[in-house]
Amino acid sequence: MTSGVQNIERLSECIERAIQEHLAKSNINIPWPQLDGLNRPVLRIEAFLEDAGPRRTARARSERVASRTLDLARMMTPAPAPSLTVDQHECKETSPTEENSHGSPYSSWEPDPTEHNNGWDRRRKGTGGLRVSHKQSVFQEDLSEHQRQMQIDTRSFPKRKKVASDKLVFQPSTLDKLIIGIWEQVHGSINLDPKAIFEQFQVAPSTGPATDVIRQAQTQEGTAMTMLSTAANTICDSFSQMNVFCRKVTQASRVCRSIEMIVQARWTELFEDQVRYRSQSKPEFSTTKHRKAVFMEACQDFGWSEKELRNKMAIWRGYKEVKDAAGWAALVFAGMGIYRFCKYRVGFDKDAMRRLKNLRKRLEVAADTLHPHWRQLLAIVGESQTLQYPGHPHEWVVFDDGSDPLPLRQTYMLHDPYFAFEHIEESVIDESVWGCEDPRWTPQSNAVARTSGVYICALCNEPQSDDAQENSCFCFPSLFGCVKRKPAPLQVYRTAVGKNNGLVALTSFDRGIAIGELVGLITKGVRHLDVMDSSTPLASYQIWQGRMGNYTRFINHSCKPNAQSSTFTWLDTQRVVLVSKGIDAGAEITLDYGDKYWAGLDKSCLCGESCCRYRRDGS
Ligand SMILES: C[S@@+](CC[C@H](N)C(=O)[O-])C[C@H]1O[C@@H](n2cnc3c(N)ncnc32)[C@H](O)[C@@H]1O
Question: Residues with Cβ within 6 A of ligand 1?
Fold first, then answer.
């Protein structure tokens, strides 16, 4: 079967060569009136294997087995100057420096975008002749032609296993663990919509005042226990049902934990208010005395010993201090780390509080955009439920120093008053270039897989599928093969050194882990704009993220990057993924754009690395 596939490949190459040779030999005016309407003509050749048997009308079109695109624009003879013969013209074309001397940065046969269609039409209409371009073999590569075109790293993926380092490795502090735990929770799939949770448990939705919500929350554990025991008897035969049930219970108890912490932090505030109130109304007694009286009253109400309440209060006071610094979101999304941090108070100092304070707005951006219902829980403690940062998580640019986040658009207004950016999950094919084709299509080399309709991963040799039950390829499980991509734990932030925005990692990314897929407009021929070049054996294409894309659009260059771009084929479609080379929480995520990006570019690299290759004099 492999030889069958190779034969088809050879056949399509043969067809391509034959057409190219024919055009080259004839060098004639091909009377194709259709060319007149095209700005950038391409000749697409496709091969289908079809049954030409007797039942022709009922026949369905078979699968495409090969696809080739010949760029006619590149093969077109430019309009000759009146005094030149065809031969002389060819000589002139081979001198790009002469072209440049006219001040145009564009090659002779590619349209100058500033001329729009007119300039192009003039050139094309002037000849009508087609010939094979010998550009690649005759021209010296002009690097400035590639400026701002990022290249995919051709080295293999960073290996997953971390090489043992002889460097001194600092263990994360309790505060680090707390902060990372919060970021993990915010970016996890936890559902903090109390209404949805309560409805799932058939408890009346929370429409009443805060006390109702507390009552509902308190009944959750009881309800969950009853349901759990029933479930154990009745639905154990169904693993998936049990999964669903277990998820509901976990989410409900997670909501209860969040409620518990915010109520305890608020109780601490009310306790202090009560002491103050009594001191003011009966100033003849000392504050210590009043505090003792309030404390004893609470012991009685809780039914706890003094020691018990004192221990609990110490932790609850910690919750309140974390809340005062990092806001309610920190409490709602805190994992178990917060208990440890508040109980042992290791590193619980002014510096820790300053760090938490700087995180406050950033946490709110993440919580508001990823869990728009989270603020409903705050009704319990009488806080506002109004979202401060609605919309997409990357619609907000956050600041390291805790300043107010800015809407993304606002950060570009100075340079581009028409700035617009659409956040997309999957790439969009530029139909004006590719029609209904996807240039990322990469046919399987494995003939058996190809005929049986199975997609085999070229890396791990396992079957790929979007159906979790069928998929066995776990090369990049956070991106491909899962039911839904989770939000990546990173934020768009304002860099300190003049690179405008950048991407900051909120948690660590181990070496070999995918950070994201570069998605954008799949196009071709973009020049002098930031673009990622890529190609399959069948086509070259570009990913342009200027107007649409995802967070990978904000990744800056570094001469010592901590991420790398690599191609990966998923379901016969090539993807460009950003793979970690080992990234610490809090670090800027960077990529090496490559020499071609910087070639001829009047820009200085601001990566600040001692090994920087593109720093210009004076910077
Ligand atoms: C793909 S964008 C990255 C996001 C960009 N910083 C922004 O705010 O939109 C690439 C642009 O970022 C800037 N940039 C990225 N890395 C840089 C570096 N090391 N030095 C200087 N500018 C850089 C350049 O302006 C470049 O054109």
Answer: 499-502, 530, 553-558, 605-607
- Domain ranges (residues) in the chain: 2-140, 174-391, 407-598
What is the distance in A from the centroid of ligand 1 to the CA of 97?
A: 29
CA of 499 to the centre of ligand 1 (A): 5
pTM to 2 decimal places: 0.72
The owner of tokens 């079109």 is: 61
pLDDT, tens digit, 9 for 90 and up, residues 239-278: 777 777 777 777 778 888 999 999 999 999 999 999 999 9
> 226 vs 230, 231, 300, 477, 572, CA distance in Å?
6, 9, 30, 36, 48
Which atom, in ligand 1's list, is nearest to the CA of 501? 8
Centroid of ligand 1 to alpha carbon of 590 (angstroms): 10
Task: Provide the 3-class DSSP secondary structure of residue 493.
Answer: strand
Give the distance (Å) from ligand 1 centre to CA of residue 585.
21
Identify the CATH number of the domain defined by range 407-598.
2.170.270.10
Mutate to test the pocket of ligand 1, among 557, 596, 605, 606 (most ligand atoms within 8 A of CB): 557
Ligand 1 atom nearest residue 559's Cα: 19
Tokens of 413: 């207004």
- Give ipTM to 2 decimals: 1.00
**556 C-alpha vs ligand 1 centroid, how far in Å?**
5
Query: Residues 446-499: pLDDT tens digits?
Result: 777 777 888 999 999 999 999 988 999 999 999 999 767 889 999 999 998 889
Class of residue 417 by CB neighbours under 10 A (exposed 0-12, middle 13-18, buried 19+): exposed
